[in-house]
Write a structure and sequence with these properties.
The chain is an alpha+beta fold. The protein has helices at about 60-70, 75-95, 100-105, 110-120, 125-145, 160-190, 210-230, 230-235, 260-270, 270-285, 290-295, 300-310, and strands at about 5-10, 15-20, 20-30, 30-35, 40-50, 55-60, 255, 310-315. A hairpin with a 2-residue loop joins strand 1 (about 5-10) and strand 2. The chain is elongated.
Length: about 325
């Protein structure tokens, strides 16, 4: 009969277990838990208490797999090295994958972290609000887990215990699904995964004034793409409305479907009379469907039209 030892320490959703084989860690709430065992195995368990439904995924570190494997021949070693190089290359092609890993491995508790990183990179107010929302949900999960009645083995007790543990599990799954869905486009934006080939350098880009104008033009193109893909977000960020208080920098765009005449004149560097004519035509038509409508109905000259086109934006009303 050999010597054995096992002792667990619990603090909220976190648990540390010391045993003869080493120290293991786990984090989660009732129904959702991620455990890193002393042998290096990482196990994720998702269940709906009281229903009998359970999903378990288990992985081991590459070092543990190699220690358990039989001695490799020279050929096998070469294949292993090649596979490791392929894995490193795939990780380089998938920047930002840690966004999803931290959400899933923490059972949604640390979902605020990738949003905080994105908010710091993109400097957007809406992302800071999401950070607060996910942090608040994590607190709710921890509180619900702590007040769930349970026995000495950590299993829910009574009708109230099973009800609370089911609520926690469903809420955790909803948080993970929502966070991952929102992080898909956000990861692309943060890491520039949709960016095309680098455009050729402008001959006069070394001049700081020219460089500033080119940067503003690139910013306008980026804001136009955002407005086209998500008009509601564009309205919330007040893209094309320099006359209103805002935090998002759109490079000087002006929304001809909503901006007042003085803002249109200032943004496009045109005469106030022309800007007022554009607003008058807009009121008659209700809104512009294309820039060609603006130029035709407002009788804009060709040279002025080119200048307006560089700054104009048409958001649906």
């Amino acid at each position: 009969m050999g010597f054995s030892y096992r002792k667990s320490f619990k603090a909220g959703p976190f648990r540390v277990t010391a045993s003869k084989s080493g120290i293991s860690y786990s984090a989660g709430v009732k129904g959702v838990r991620v455990t890193k065992r002393a042998n290096g195995r990482v196990q994720t368990t998702i269940s709906a208490p009281g229903t009998g439904l359970r999903y378990t995924a288990s992985t081991t570190s590459s070092g543990k797999r190699q220690s358990l494997a039989a001695p490799a021949t020279a050929v096998n070693a070469a294949v292993t090295d090649t596979s490791a190089a392929d894995r490193r290359a795939r990780r380089k092609r998938r920047p930002g994958a840690w966004y999803f890993a931290i959400v899933l491995l923490s059972a949604g508790l640390f979902s605020a972290i990738p949003f905080a990183h994105a908010a710091a990179r993109l400097r957007r107010k809406d992302l800071r609000l999401r950070v607060g929302a996910y942090a608040a949900v994590a607190i709710v999960l921890a509180v619900l887990s702590s007040i769930t009645p349970q026995d000495a083995h950590g299993n829910p007790v009574g009708a109230a215990g099973h009800a609370l543990s089911t609520i926690v599990a469903v809420l955790a799954l909803a948080v993970m699904a929502t966070a991952c869905f929102q992080l898909v486009p956000l990861r692309r934006e943060v890491y520039g995964l949709e960016a095309g080939p680098t455009p050729p350098t402008h001959p006069a880009a070394a001049d700081p004034v020219v460089a500033a104008h080119l940067a503003a033009r690139a910013r306008r193109d980026e804001a136009r793409a955002l407005a086209q893909s998500d008009p509601v977000l564009a309205h919330d960020l007040r893209i094309g409305r320099p006359d209103l208080p805002r935090e998002y920098e759109d490079g000087g765009l002006i929304d001809l479907n909503s901006a007042p005449a003085h803002a249109i004149a200032a943004a496009c560097s045109i005469e106030p009379s022309l800007a007022e004519r554009i607003v008058a035509v807009r009121q008659e038509l209700g809104s512009f469907g294309s820039l060609d409508e603006v130029f035709v109905f407002a009788e804009v000259e060709q040279g002025t039209a080119a200048r307006i086109r560089d700054y104009a934006l048409l958001l649906p009303r």
